[in-house]
Structure formats: structure tokens, C-alpha cells
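Run log, item B.
One chain of 157 residues. Sequence copied directly from the ordering sheet:
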Amino acid sequence: MCVVQVLTAHLLPPRQALGSLCSPWAAPRVGPLPPAPAMVRISKPKTFQAYLDDCHRRYSCAHCRAHLANHDDLISKSFQGSQGRAYLFNSVVNVGCGPAEERVLLTGLHAVADIHCENCKTTLGWKYEQAFESSQKYKEGKYIIELNHMIKDNGWD
């Protein structure tokens, strides 16, 4: 198909334009290709990386309901986050970690990495990467999630 056909196709009635563009006897292409149509971006479906078992009590993200932790992984309810009360968990799911940085917290110097919900990207709390005081070593590898970012879900009657 020649460039002239591409440029004039929009001036022809739809049937003629389609016929001239799709004809098997069209002249071979001469010149550059016409610009490609704009691509349609399909939004990512809201699926979680991990679903926790339905028979256990669990905590979910308050903003998007993504599963975060089983109640069985709760270590302590007596922690303080930057925006209020927080819980310490042994393990969590559907969270991403930022880079580790040293912060002076209420219990001393720690290397921590902010954690966020993988689904809605809300910052939930942090992960303890390293504790510099021997009395705080039990926190290493554990997660803090602030109460205002999570809800109780499934089986809390």
C-alpha cells in the first residue's frame, strides 16, 4: 500500500477506505510506516500475592482489604508507631520493603525499613532489620504494623 493511500484513506467513505487499505492487490509499501495507534493501558487487577487461610483470624489492610497477617503471628500489642499504637508480627504477607535506614526509636537505635501494602502502596509501618542493643535483638526480622492501617478480618466473633 502506498503512502498516498494511507493519507487519503480518511477522505474516502468507510467502505472504500477499508477496501483500498485491505486489498490484496494494493501496491507495495513505499516510505515510512504510518504512526501506530495509541496503546490502551489496562489497569492491573486487584489480586493479592498471598491469601491467608479462611479458618484463621487475620489482619487486613484498612485501605484495600489485602491480607497482611494471621493472628497466630502476632507477638505483641504493646508497641508505639509513628501515628499511634502498633502491633509486632513475626511474619506478614502482601507487603513491600523500602531501603533500610538507621532511626532512633523509643527503645534505642535500630536499622529499619518502611513497609507498604503491595496492593494500595500505603505505608503500614516498618521492618526491624537490625537492633544495636542486645536487649532488642528479638525484634530483628519482625514487622510493626500501625493499628490505623489494619482491620480485623474473618472469625473475630
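Observations after the first pass:
- DSSP finds two helices and nine strands in the chain.
- The first strand starts at residue 58 and ends at 61.
Flagged for discussion on Thursday.
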